[in-house]
Specification:
This protein has 169 residues and is mostly helical. The chain has seven helices and two strands, in the order E-E-H-H-H-H-H-H-H. A two-stranded antiparallel ribbon has the order 1-2.
């Protein structure tokens, strides 16, 4: 329990998420400027700010993220990049966020509570995934193809080779 000079009290917040501390307002502002600049489409129309949440697929985020990472790396090493270091970092953040969003958006039990630590040395212990392997094995072919499409190309190829002994489906 916390008690303030005014006499008011609040519960202890040590186990609560702290976005204000985890994030920087100047970084969020610069990132928002980057995203706003990229809302203008090739046809001149302005896309919705949350358009990216409709989904693009993991491989799109991965390929774009690598291009932005390369620009960041070039700039870091003193070479000329396509877009400059700030835009490269903002692009990298965007792609990492999009990739993570794709992973999280279909989790039925998305846990927004902070992770629990058993001890400092043990660290975070994630909850076991609720995988029903029986249903995964007997899933119909069309559903499997849809699931397969959201995976990175290299993983798609590996699964096709392993399960079907072929390159493409």
């Amino acid at each position: 329990m916390r008690e303030f000079e005014s006499g008011s009290t609040r519960d202890d917040d040590s186990e609560k998420l702290d976005p204000e501390g985890f994030l920087s307002p100047i970084v969020i502002q610069r990132y928002s400027q980057y995203l706003h600049k990229h809302r203008i489409q090739a046809d001149g129309k302005l896309r919705d700010s949350d358009n990216w949440q409709k989904g693009m697929g993991l491989s799109v985020y991965m390929k774009s993220g690598y291009r932005h990472f390369l620009d960041w790396w070039l700039d870091h090493r003193g070479y000329t990049s396509r877009e400059g270091i700030e835009d490269a970092l903002c692009g990298l953040i965007f792609n990492a966020m999009g990739y993570l969003f794709e992973i999280l958006k279909n989790q039925p039990d998305l846990n927004i509570e902070p992770p629990k630590f058993d001890t400092v040395t043990e660290g975070y212990r994630p909850k076991k995934a609720d995988l029903d392997l029986e249903n995964m094995i007997t899933i119909d072919k069309n559903k499997f193809k849809k699931i397969l499409k959201i995976l990175p190309d290299s993983l798609q190829s590996y699964i096709r080779k392993t399960l079907y002994n072929r390159e493409e489906d």
